[in-house]
Amino acid sequence: MALEQPKKITGGAFGRFLNEQRPALAAECKGKPATAVVKLASERFKALSTLDMAKYETQYAQAKATYEKALAAFLAGGGEVKSLKRKGGDLDDKKHAKKLKKLNKDPNAPKKAAGGGFGCYINKHRQDLMKECAGQPITAVSKLAGSRWAALPENDKKPYQEEFVAKQAAYKKAMETYVPPPKKEGQEEELSPKEAKKAAKVAAKADALQAKEDKKAAKEEAKTTTKGGKSAAVKSAAAKGKKTAPPAFTLQPEVLAKAEKANLTDVLVKLATRDDVKASGKTELQMLKALQDNSGLLHPAKRALLGC
Predict the structure, then answer these.
(1) What's the domain count of the chain?
(2) What's the predicted TM-score (pTM) here?
């Protein structure tokens, strides 16, 4: 019987929390879009105390250690790890996009805290763990760290969890004043082949729609213009005390492609057209990132951008 490749553990501590709370959250969000469950879970997870969050970090560390043990057994038995196809594109496309993002990343940008209390623990003890695992595969270090962390009493874990919370706070404070370096003249953000193709398609569609709207507006203007130089439509709106509709807002093609991929197009447009956000001088990419960091919620993203 052929060995079956173990399923990789993903989602981190939040994934453990979401899986545990999904039935209750789904009941609360009954009748709402499926994304409402994830949004509510994100808000609840962020509100957890340090000790409650540590519970899920421990669950993730244990699940990851179990996966790595199963993977080692799979490889030892002659198994071969295969690249998995995922919904939404080939894994190679995602790796390519991730590599481009890493190459274009500002080396002076604040470093985001990751790994929870377990990450702080392994960073402190890495050298000692590496000595104990000398001659073994590199994965042996994380396996040993995972087992040691799981065996620690809660009181001994608390300093590492508090250290992680402090790192998160420092990162958020640094991001409030961080300004990405300006792009060089003529430089555009490089996209993966798949993203570039989609961006071009979206841009062409947007141009066609805009041209259609312009043509329609010109026709209406010519039809309703009076001798005084004002259109009857404008006069009618003024007489009724109504405001004319603002012009349609169009996102940059590469930003629009990413926003559509993340299902954040509508909320990004709302955020980008707010007067206070426009006055801040933030780029559309910064706005999109703020939405992604805040689970697609408009007001938290605005507060993150404006630092209030």
Answers:
(1) 2
(2) 0.33
